[in-house]
Amino acid sequence: MNKEIPVFFSIDDGYAPFLATALNSAIESSDASRKYRAIVLYKDLSKENIRRLSALSKEHFRIDFAEMKQSFEEIGDRMSNRLRCDYFTLTIYFRLFIPAMFPQYDKAIYIDSDVVIPGDIAELYDTDIGDNLIGACVDKSVSDVPELARYMEDAVGVSRDKYINSGVLLMNLKALRERRLDEHFLSLLTKYQFDCIAPDQDYINAICSGSIHYLDEIWDAMPNDRKPPLSDVKLIHYNLFSKPWCYDGIQYADFFWKAAEGCGYIDEIRAYKDSYSEEQKKSDSECLGLLIRRGVEIAESDITFKKIFESGEKIRL
């Protein structure tokens, strides 16, 4: 079982302390008899942060870095100049390009950087998802918000109990390459420019619908005050505004602070929390309200994934 386990993350300079926390937790939970490779896709990451993040690596857990812009340029020719959209627009969709960027891998994990990982990600990697394109967890953080549940069903065209969170993906890269995920996505993006409240997540749900292996929710446990915490969590995802480095009383916060202690950025993280202002908290609250309003507006618009799919256009891979 010495096959390398590729795990992708992405950040910019502002998120380096939180990626360090995620990496530290993943390394502490890893199996020293396995081989892991964390690949950090980045935009505007300083040499100093690269150095500090690299210092976390272990003999069995390698940390490498790939600049997003360079990676996009490398696949541009192979995609017959289909990268017509602005680079900065495409960065929010970067995980959709992982299959094309890294042809040496047939399978990989993608994880957002606002996580801690108390379980061994080798266990996630070893999960058999069959011929499905991805393995992921149902997004239960907002599925009980009526307006957003309606958005999932009426705009994205996916049942609220099937709509997945794209922050943790077990990716069948071989199948995604064979079905030309990158080209299909860019074709849809260029032709329709769908309005989305969660851009990459909505495209992934619409495109991969019917070819998703649903993982146990312990692999993408998200704080939710409306529900009791899960036991035996393997991965905790501090989604949306549920950040323990911004707020007190966040579910699963103890896991975060334990992992942060040894990440090399604990002083910066504490200072960040101490300086998180009432204005920022007010802005968070307003953003959540805006998210809900946008969901209602988009669901009622003329161009949605669901309406285009029902018109006969190929949306799903």
Describe this structure as you would to a colleague.
The chain is of the alpha/beta class and 317 residues long. The protein has one domain (4-310): Spore Coat Polysaccharide Biosynthesis Protein SpsA, Chain A (Alpha-Beta Complex). 40% of the residues lie in helices and 15% in strands. It is built from 14 helices and nine strands. It has helices at 16-28, 47-54, 68-76, 87-90, 98-101, 121-125, 146-156, 173-178, 181-192, 199-208, 253-261, 266-274, 278-299, 305-310, and strands at 4-11, 35-42, 61-67, 108-111, 115-116, 134-138, 164-171, 212-214, 236-237. It has a seven-stranded mixed beta sheet with strand order 3-2-1-4-7-6-8, with helices on both faces. Strands 5-9 form a two-stranded antiparallel ribbon. β2, α2 and β3 form a beta-alpha-beta unit. α1 (16-28) crosses α11 (253-261) and α7 (146-156) packs across α13 (278-299).
